[in-house]
Amino acid sequence: MKQVEVVAAHAERATRRFGDVFLKIDADQTRTDVEVGAMAMAPIPTPEVLWRKPPVLALAALPGSQLGRLGEPSTASSSAWAAAGAAARVLHDAPPPPWPGWSRDDLASELDGECEWLITNGVLPPDRHAQSPDRRDCTPPVDTGVHARRPADHPRVRRW
Fold it and tell me: Could you tell me how many helices (H) and strands (E) the chain has, helices first?
């Protein structure tokens, strides 16, 4: 193993990569249970759960190549990006998980607050939001469920 890579880290959870194994450390085991349940229901390939020993979840890396790295131009082909988009569409077209989650109104309220913060702190110009009453500049459309954003170095495309 060449190095340990910090994939993501913040106050609630951290993800480390050790070769072909990702270790997700999360103090909230309910969130981890929901994640594992959602992966089991997903209509697309998801990482194999290698083991769980709270607060750690070990996942196998998916086969394939990274589409890109943050801050660097992508070297992936347009067909690789199209395949990633097709997989995202399959996932988004699937029915949402059966467990309760945020309602559209709760989500809209939360996103309104986030957008207000962006404007108040000068991250987003106020005139941009005024031109966008449906909040497209601040928030992504949500149709079936909520999930984490997918950085370019997370999706993997299998080379055939």
Answer: 4, 7
Handedness of CA 134, 138, 143, 145 (dihedral sign): negative
pTM exceeds 0.70, yes or no: no
Q: Decide if pLDDT at 42 tops 90.
A: yes
What is the DSSP code (8-state) at residue 120? H
Q: Which positions ≥6 away from 142 have C-beta within 8 Å? A: 104, 107
Phi-psi region of 47 (alpha: psi -120 to 50; beta: other; left: phi over 0): beta
Burial of 157 (0-12, 13-18, 19+ CB in 10 A): buried
118 vs 135: CA distance, rounded Å:
12
Q: What secondary structure does DSSP assign to 72-118, as a single string?
A: S-----HHHHHHHHHHHHHHHHSPPPSS----HHHHHHHHHHHHHHH
DSSP one-letter code for 30: H
